[in-house]
Every structure is written in structure tokens, then in C-alpha cells.
Specification:
The chain is α/β, with parallel strands linked by helices. It is globular, with a radius of gyration of 33 Å.
Length: about 700
């Protein structure tokens, strides 16, 4: 199995074997990638995840083999040759083809014909040695078989099943589908008005191989909603039938005519529907995989967006009729105060709102203001920036996507049981500015607004992929164990919901953790859990500076030895670049520690606890733009990418409606993958191509801007 995975994934066999061993021992992917580079040969998280996924699929394949072998053996048809072939088979499609003739069947037409004793007639016809078809069939007219037509029909039904169950036949049609299949969608009569959003697909056809992920998912959604009828077929059924006939029709006599009829029936009734289903499933799976890949990439960029850091923030959830909900947060994100102001019509109290805002900034020593990007966002931003404060403030507009989901969630109710959803939503807007990662992990990724048909893809695969992305982001940044929420801690390597809650409870009872070793006192924190999690948990201002770094506790002695050999302590080693330059890491290589780990340690000593995320930038929209009516063709505007899809990206230019930069408008060259050009939260300059005011659509371009 290791050899097969090595060849399939193009990875060293020993690295694969060591990785599987570590996974079997309970090691997590982030831990293996970061702290076991010697064992894996430096495999990254993507490669380790690929090994894990491929191994799981092989296990599932083996379970299927066991079931198939047991079923065939019960029938008394399992030969040594068949057993060997099944054992060596590594392709699930081929395995099902092998199994098909032995698969227990419901009462098919062929099975009914066999019960009437017509299988010998089918074999005689297949031999194609005689032209006396009528006389041949007459011998079987007895019992339930009333005449020769019924006898021949039953024999053809049996032959049709043989053709369908033949691996050669199936591969012939499968290969034809792979080269020539077209996907076609048509409107179901009477659904014109309801299905208007699928208008592009009312009479659509294109080669299946060229059907993009987003079109495939749109078509399938239309089908699931009962608006479209979708089919996948070869361009010409005649070609498929001719190829099958060449395999089975060897003469030109009466028997050959019966075989030809059976072949056509087999193709239309059995083979084509079966292969169509196979290609429908595989093309949907491929579309799912691509959509999930794009979603995961967007989510990663969103979670790793630049944080403001621990600063006192005033957050505003803007609104018209219900006013603007204002909250004040301390540097740790704790809620200090909340109230509602009314700077906009219809209940306008501009002067009073201004006085309250200025007072709150002064009273709570606010350092930055965070404004949600929903309704009344631009007007609220203008209101905030037009005031005069007693200090210099940074003002940011942040995405509200998913804030309403969070504010109504159990997580939010647990955090703020005494406040309503409006307060919780405003707090989320403020915390997103301070630390996007810590706040967004509380929300179902599907609700964050960076996906493509996220509710149409395989939900199990989507959850697995997104959970892995969240886990990667959390562990690559690291977590302050003394301030992290239970939800954030849940994603730390080796923890999970129970241990995360135990850490929060222990912290509440005993106060902040002073050292990483204190974590061992947490209930159910065993040696394995500590090993897997400790390197990703940070303790700022700890006595031992390594407790606020990515250096794993298992390597503290090694770092201490380095410092001792230089005649200094660890703090001095971290603070003095000249001392670190004197360290010859080759002298510290041993059986368990190699150069990859030593290089990581030295890099961490240079900037212990460094946040890998970029620094946040103050940024603003064009002041001329407030609503879609202000947007005119030809304008060049600043914008921020909010979502990336296979067909382009959506850009917020400061109005309610997001503009679309089609993939053909991303660059002055051909772009096959938009993620190579743009990313979520990227600041861009765009030119307005067209504005459809009636449909509320804005077309943008990034060419020569």
C-alpha cells in the first residue's frame, strides 16, 4: 500500500510510510508538518493531507472488495483467478465492472427470461452458427413462453444484459463518453416564469469536457429545483451502437440480426443510462472538487486577513430606521459599553449622535473605529470621518458577511447571554477588525460569503476541506491560550471541543497560564494532547520567552544548550543577532533532530511568536460613489475583492451591489484560474465597463487600469 501511494502521489515511499505511522499514532497534520520534518522529508500540510485522504480511500476500497468477495463466494462462483483480479484492482470503477455480472439483481427482464428457461436459446443465438432462428426458438415455446416472438424477446433480453455487463462493452461506451459526451439542459415546460434565473440554460448544450465547474453546478441546481431537464449523451448514438455491433455481430445471418437488436436495446435501455449516470456523478464530483478548492482558497485568505491587533475599538453596525448600534471594546475584545445612535433619517439626530460618538471615543480611549459594510455603511463612514476627536483614529470598513448568523448562534448566546442580536453583531464587527481569524472561526464557513455554490456541492467533502483550512490557519498563526475563546481553541492541533472547554474553565478558575507546562494540569490534558498542541499555544509575557514562540517544549533543552554554549541565557540569545549568528546548527544534529528542525528553531528565535499575517492598511472607497446610480461606465475606482470564483471575482466598490470582473477582464492575457490573479481582501483598481441599473449589475475590468 505504501508503494502504491508513493507512486500515485509521486512522494518518497519512506516519507509516506512514516507519515501514515504518525497519523496512526494520533498525530495531527499541522503537528506532523511543523515538528516532524525529519520523518516526512519536509512534506507540507497539503501533501500530508493528500496521503491521509488517499489512504482513507484505499481503506474504503478494501472494504468494498471484502464485501464483493464475500458475495461472490456465497454464490459459489469465486475462482482463484477472480479472487486475484479483485485483490489487485485499485480502481473503483473497474472493480464495479468486475462485480457487475455477480451483483444480486432485482427482477429484471433478463432474470424473468432465465426463469422461463430461455438462457440456452440466448447462448445459441450468441454462437451465430445457424440461420434457422424460428425453428431454434420453437423448441422453447412451452410453459410460460407462448410463441417464438416471446422466446426470442426473452433471449434478446438476456443477451442485452450480457452486453451491459461486459467490461469491454462498458469501456467502449465509457471511452466514447470521455471523448464526445455533451451535456444538455432544457427548460421543463410551464416553468418559464419560475426558472428565469436559469434562462441561460433553457436550451443549452456543450461538450461535457468543457463544462466549467460553475456552469455544471448551476445546471444541476436547476435540475434539482425541478426547472431543467439535464442529460449527458454522446454526440451521436449511432457511433456507439456501431462500435458495439462490431464487437458482437460476427455474421450476417438471422442470428446476427437478433444479436444486433439485442445490442441496440442494451445500449439504449441499459448501457447508455448506466454510463450517463456514471459520468453525471463523476462530472458533478469534479465540479464539486473545483468549487471546494476555490472556496477553501478564499476562506484561507479571509481567515489570514491582516489583524489590527489588541487595540481599543469602537464598532458600529450601521442602519437607517433602527439606527446605528455602537459598542466599545477593550484591547482584548471585551464588551465595555453599547448604545444606539441615529445619525441618519428617518429618525435623524445628527448632532446628538455626533456628541455621543465623540464622548465614547474619549471616555473609552478608542484607538480605531470599525464600521460594518451593510446598509448605510457609506453614510456612516462619512458621518464618522467628518467628526473632530481628541485623538487620531483609524477608521475601517469591514465585511458583515455572517455576522447575523453569529449573533443568533449558540456561541454568541453563550458569550453574551444578556444582550440581544444587534449588540452581538456589532461586537463581531469590532472583533473582526482586531483579529479576523479569532472571530470568523465562530461562524459556519458557508455563511461567510466567499463560496461558489457552496450549498450544492458534496457537504461532507466541503466540511472536511473547510475544517482542514480553518485548522491550518489557526495553527499557522498560533493562539494566545490566555485570551482565546473555546471555539478558537477547538481548532488547535490535538485539542477538540472537550479539552478547549476544559482550558477555558481552568483559566477562569485559576487565572492566566504562566507557563506551557501549566497546561498539563488541565483535566484530560494527557501527554499526547500536550505534545500535539503545546507548540501552537502562546503565552505572551511568560517568564520563559520560548513559551511565546513556535519552538516546541520538546526542544527547549536544545535551545538552552545553544545559549549555554555561548555563555548566555535564552532571552539574551533571542535578543542578540550576533550571538545567534555564532550558532553552528550542524553541531546539534542528532538521531531525533535534523537540519530542518534546527533551521525552524533558528528562524523562530529571530522573531519569536511572529504573526505571519500582513499588517493592516487603512483604505477607503471613492468619495463620489454612494449608490449604484453614482456609478458610470468609464469610471476608474478603488475596490476590494470580496469573493473569487471560477468565472472571475466580485469587487466591492462602495455600493450595495458588488461588481463582477469576468475572468476575461482580469488581465491582458488569458487567465485560466482567477486565484492566480486576485485574492479575497485584495485592494484593486477597476474600470467600470457597464452598469445595468434595472438588474442591479455592475461589470468591471482590471485590464490596463
Amino acid at each position: 500500500m505504501n508503494k502504491y501511494l508513493s507512486q500515485t502521489l509521486n512522494l518518497p515511499e519512506q516519507a509516506v510510510a512514516n507519515t501514515l505511522k504518525l497519523l496512526a499514532e494520533g498525530a495531527t497534520i499541522p503537528f506532523i508538518s511543523r515538528y516532524r520534518k525529519e520523518a516526512t522529508g519536509g512534506l507540507d500540510e497539503v501533501q500530508i493531507a493528500a496521503i491521509d485522504t488517499a489512504y482513507t480511500k484505499l481503506q474504503e476500497l478494501q472494504k468494498r472488495k471484502d464485501t464483493i468477495l464475500a458475495t461472490i463466494e456465497e454464490q459459489g462462483k469465486l475462482t482463484d483467478e477472480l479472487r486475484t483480479r479483485i485483490a489487485k484492482c485499485m480502481d473503483s470503477t473497474e472493480l464495479e465492472d468486475i462485480y457487475l455480472p455477480y451483483k444480486p439483481k432485482r427482477r429484471t427482464r433478463a432474470e424473468i427470461a432465465r426463469t422461463k428457461g430461455l438462457e440456452p436459446l440466448a447462448k445459441m443465438l450468441m454462437a451465430q452458427n445457424s440461420n434457422g432462428v424460428e425453428s431454434m426458438a420453437l423448441r422453447f415455446v412451452k410453459g410460460e413462453v407462448k410463441d417464438t416472438d416471446e422466446a426470442l424477446q426473452g433471449a434478446r433480453d438476456i443477451i442485452a444484459e450480457w452486453v451491459n455487463e461486459s467490461e469491454r462493452s462498458r469501456n467502449t461506451i465509457r471511452n466514447l463518453f470521455a471523448r464526445e459526451a455533451r451535456i444538455t439542459s432544457k427548460l421543463i415546460a410551464g416553468k418559464e416564469t419560475e426558472a428565469d434565473k436559469y434562462r441561460d440554460y433553457f436550451d443549452w448544450s456543450e461538450p461535457l469536457a468543457r463544462c466549467s465547474s460553475h456552469r455544471m453546478l448551476a445546471i444541476r441546481r436547476g435540475e434539482n429545483e425541478g426547472f431543467l431537464r439535464v442529460s449527458i449523451t454522446p454526440a451521436d448514438d449511432t457511433v456507439a451502437i456501431e462500435r458495439l455491433e462490431r464487437q458482437y455481430v460476427r455474421t450476417s445471418g438471422e442470428c446476427a440480426e437478433q444479436i444486433a437488436l439485442a445490442v441496440r436495446d442494451s445500449y439504449k435501455r441499459l448501457l447508455r443510462p448506466s454510463i450517463e449516470t456514471e459520468f453525471a456523478n463523476s462530472s458533478k464530483a469534479k465540479a464539486d472538487e473545483e468549487a471546494i478548492r476555490v472556496f477553501a482558497a478564499n476562506l484561507k485568505q479571509l481567515l489570514l486577513a491582516a489583524p489590527l491587533g489588541q487595540k481599543r475599538v469602537l464598532a458600529i453596525d450601521p442602519g437607517y430606521r433602527t439606527g446605528c448600534k455602537v459598542v466599545c471594546l477593550d484591547a482584548q475584545g471585551n464588551l465595555l459599553h453599547n448604545e444606539t445612535i441615529y445619525p441618519h433619517p428617518p429618525k435623524s439626530d445628527y448632532a446628538g449622535a455626533a456628541r455621543k460618538l465623540i464622548r465614547l471615543v474619549e471616555q473609552y480611549k478608542i484607538e480605531a473605529i470599525s464600521i460594518g459594510n451593510g446598509t448605510a455603511s457609506r453614510e456612516t463612514e462619512q458621518f464618522v470621518t467628518s467628526q473632530r476627536y481628541d485623538r487620531k483614529l483609524q477608521v475601517f470598513v469591514v465585511s458583515e458577511d455572517g455576522a447575523s448568523i453569529y449573533s443568533a448562534s449558540q456561541v454568541a448566546r453563550d458569550e453574551f447571554p444578556d444582550y440581544d442580536v444587534t449588540v452581538r453583531g456589532a461586537v463581531s464587527i469590532g472583533r473582526r477588525l482586531m483579529d479576523p481569524l479569532a472571530e470568523l472561526v465562530k461562524i459556519d464557513p458557508k455563511s461567510i460569503g466567499v463560496g461558489q455554490y457552496q450549498y450544492d456541492v458534496d457537504q461532507k467533502e466541503l466540511k472536511s476541506s473547510l475544517d482542514r483550512i480553518v485548522e491550518h490557519c489557526v495553527n499557522s498563526v498560533g493562539v494566545n491560550v490566555n485570551t482565546a475563546s473555546k471555539h478558537l481553541l477547538t481548532y488547535v492541533s490535538g485539542l477538540g471541543a472537550t479539552l478547549a472547554q476544559n482550558i477555558v474553565d481552568y483559566r477562569a478558575e485559576h487565572g492566566p497560564f504562566a507557563t506551557r507546562n501549566d497546561l498539563k494540569r488541565v483535566p484530560r490534558m494527557g501527554d499526547k494532547s500536550f505534545e500535539q498542541s503545546a507548540g501552537f499555544l502562546r503565552i505572551p509575557d511568560a517568564k520563559n520567552p520560548l513559551d511565546n514562540s513556535a519552538v516546541h517544549p520538546e526542544r527547549y533543552r536544545l535551545v538552552e544548550q545553544m545559549a549555554h554554549n555561548l555563555g548566555c541565557n535564552v532571552s539574551e540569545l533571542i535578543a542578540n543577532a550576533e550571538l545567534r549568528a555564532k550558532v553552528d546548527i550542524n553541531k546539534y544534529v542528532n538521531e531525533s533532530v535534523g537540519l530542518p528542525t534546527l533551521r525552524d528553531i533558528m528562524a523562530e528565535l529571530e522573531k519569536p511568536g511572529r504573526d505571519p499575517r500582513e499588517a493592516i492598511e487603512v483604505w477607503s472607497f471613492d468619495e463620489r460613489i454612494r449608490t449604484i446610480e453614482d456609478v458610470k461606465a468609464g469610471m476608474v475606482l478603488p475596490g476590494i475583492v470580496t469573493n473569487v470564483t471560477n468565472f472571475g471575482c466580485f469587487v466591492d466598490i462602495g455600493v450595495k451591489e458588488k461588481g463582477l470582473v469576468h475572468v476575461s477582464q482580469l488581465a491582458d492575457r488569458f487567465v485560466s484560474d482567477p486565484t492566480t490573479i486576485v485574492s479575497v481582501h485584495q485592494h484593486v483598481s477597476v474600470r467600470v465597463i457597464e452598469v445595468d441599473y434595472s438588474r442591479k449589475r455592475i461589470s468591471l475590468s482590471m485590464k490596463e487600469v
